[in-house]
Amino acid sequence: MRKLRKVIAVQQAKRRIYLDHNATTPVRPEVVEAMLPYFDERFGNASSLHGFGQENRGVLDTARGHVAALLGADAEEIVFTSGGTESDNLAIRGTIKARRRPGVAPHVVTCVIEHPAVLATCESIEKEGVEVSYIPCTSDGVVRLDLLERAIRPETVLVSIMLANNETGVMQPIQEVSRLVKPHGITLHTDAVQAIGKVPIDVNTLGVDLLSISAHKLYGPKGIGALYVRRGTPLEPVYTGGGHEYGLRPGTENIPGIVGFGESCRISKERLEEEMERISALRAMLEEGILKDPGDITVNGSGIARLPNTSNIIVSRVEGEAVTLNLSMFGFAVSSGSACSSGKSEPSHVLLAMGLSPTDAQGGIRISLGIDTTEEEIRSFLEVFPKVVGRLRELSPLKEHS
Fold it and tell me: Does 290 share its domain with 160?
């Protein structure tokens, strides 16, 4: 045991390779630099009428414009929040409040593979008298459009379908969803938290009314996000206070966070195409190397559109959590599911929904690349990964069933 610990310590001292960018991203140095003045000398409240406040009002408006530009939206359609979870809550609860009719239970449609920020909110509103339909997905992890269309009824006020899945990276057909719901006058929300900064997003092309994003997924600070609200969309605030953010999100604005968010969006818009191409090539290299393993390994959603940085693999006869922990001992950071579900021993709800057995679903590993990921890091991972998997398979009680 002492020898093993020494080997691990040596490996950790040699490298720390981060391959979990879907959980969060490091803040770009340019973003940190842009934020710093707003922690001390430029501390004014943007709602104040004096110079300190009005200076920051202008800064807030500039950042709002950068966020809007990344989405193909108008600046007045961006409402700043504390992050993706709050944006999802505002979209769902705010729509229900705005569109509830006396004596009629509102109806919401979503998908079983959504992020917990949406699923938990839907489960909560069910206790408040809202009816929710949870649409299944295909074996590739795509929402069943035929069943979604059948679920729509006169009481339906909202459809919420994510743009890209946080575990598998599988893109959802939001444009097709829009074509189904728009003739019925239903509000369409998409959680784009995982897609922002990884693929081009245009709210008009997508046809959405509400869209949630978060800064920490695209190399900005944590604790700041936004909800795109198409002009004219019925929406009410979910808690009370001042008239900030067009009356939809009361509370003094987080100016340092908003500045950082705006800057990360500005940089992302400039570099998105180049970074997509490079990261896509690295993922292809990664998956090709992983699949050379003679063992039973599969890539989920490999035949359809996915985020260019995301690879979700199943390692048969081994628990994903064990692989994740062992890779961590060698300095590699990956995930055995979404970061919001870490610490849970249950199989991934996404992989189960795709039809995987509970045993296989527990073997899921998410590897997500970022702008700092290099070919050398991928080669290092491919050197260690098969050794870790081979060792765990030897120890696994499931190997006798292989």
Answer: no
